[in-house]
Amino acid sequence: MNTNYLFTIERIKKSLNRVEKSKQINKYILLYVAIKDCIQKIELPHDWVLPSTRILAEELAISRTTVVKSYELLQLEKLVVSKTGSGFKISYDISDKNTAHEKKSVIDSDLYPEISSKGKSFLNNVSLINRSTDTSVAFRPGLPPLDIFPINQWKNLLNTYWRHVKSSKLSYARSTGIDPLKRSISNYLNVSRNIKCDHDQIIVVSGSLQSLYLIGSVLIDKGDNVILEDPAFPNVHSLFKSIQANLLPIATDENGISIKKMNELNHLKPKLVHVTPSNHYPLGKKMSLQRRKELLDWASKNNSLIIENDYENEVANHLINVPSIFSLDAKDRTIYMGTFNRLLHPSIRLGYMVVPRYLIAAVEALQEHSHRFVAPSIQVVMNQFIERNYLYQHLKNILEVAQERQELFLSEFNKSETMIVKNQRFSSLHLVANFKKSTSQDEEVQIIKKLKEADVTTHSLSKCFIGNHKQQGLILGYSSVRPSVLERKVKKLVHIIG
Q1: Is the pLDDT of residue 3 over 80?
Q2: Do 263 and 298 form a contact (C-beta atoms < 8 A)?
Q3: 449 to each of 302, 459, 471, 475, 496, how far by Cα in Å?
Q4: How do the domains of the chain map onto residue ranges?
Q5: How many angstroms separate the CA atoms of 386 and 392, rounded?
Q6: Distance of CA 72 to the CA centre of its chain
Q7: Distance CA 484, CA 226 (A)
């Protein structure tokens, strides 16, 4: 029997005990009243499937006719609906009935324990995050070409895992990740980024934000200074601000983050500096080799650590592969971050970081107290995906498809009279469009709102700036849109912005 039916029948039995069992009331009336009572008390929620008349009759030791009559009364009151092939469902949505009341209700915070300062900090900064559940993929940044992901390959690997997995593998796993995947990632980084690291230095996570949360939590106390590129990922800005770090935004030039400006802040003893050297977010600048060496020298002199967020490095380095900061680091001062979410698809929730050896135990301890581990099934399949060369094949397809789609996007977008894409080289899965004339932040917000109403998603450029000097513009993710849709969507975009 369906487990849901067991719960439902138990609810109905309890409700029957609450109803007055008078001999003068027919059994079908008693059952009708009992089920109605469950529905109105939300013990059986909206859209919940009721047991079939046969099953309920058998479990309650009553005739099927009695159950049929009860269900018919519930249908007459529109508390239950019947659809062919779907059985009987509860049709009583209290959310609509309570909407007006909920809007007027005010929570008396004096009745509850006070939220911690860190909890309030996360609440206050959540608006900084670029997070959307919109189903539209045009032109949302951060998405790879979703339509070319090899679903069948992944599905076959996953099916194989479940066919052969032993029951002992269904227990708890090591929080930092399974060894086979960590070794594969280590080999992958060695070949692709010349990163030489022990597999024990690799921490498997659900994504970049988890990496930053772990690093920030084990290193940063309230008021500690953290240097961020300006502009930067809004999510990075939000995370460090929420853990109550003191943020020091440093502007970038054509070679990357300004070491000259950083030297002016040495007296503040920054603990961390977060950079995106392969492809500065969102402007697309690549940090020069000389600047990377200068940054390492700065970190050594100031007893600081560098977070090298190497998002989309596979795209950024496909033509000119400047050595990673980690590979240049002889003093173990670099935390390297990578993710498969931007390369494969966001729903996979799989990333990694390589940490200095002295941080491994602290990070693992924090994971044991919080996220525990990424699902081993996903890790095993990802390992097979790498070992069987599927990842490299898919990466080749991504580069080919994304480049074609960028060219198609630009061919239409360049017809705009009000905006221009300055950096048109293929180095990322997003583009930044600037306004040709001076535009206020309010105007930028209104344009983004109009585009959203037209089912076009974009991110704000000004939102990426931490300091007072902000640039207005749009961040546009083009690669996840099929060519047949892309051309039409770009035309709509250009029509709206002018």
Answers
A1: no
A2: yes
A3: 44, 10, 18, 14, 11
A4: 3-94, 167-388, 393-497
A5: 7
A6: 45
A7: 44
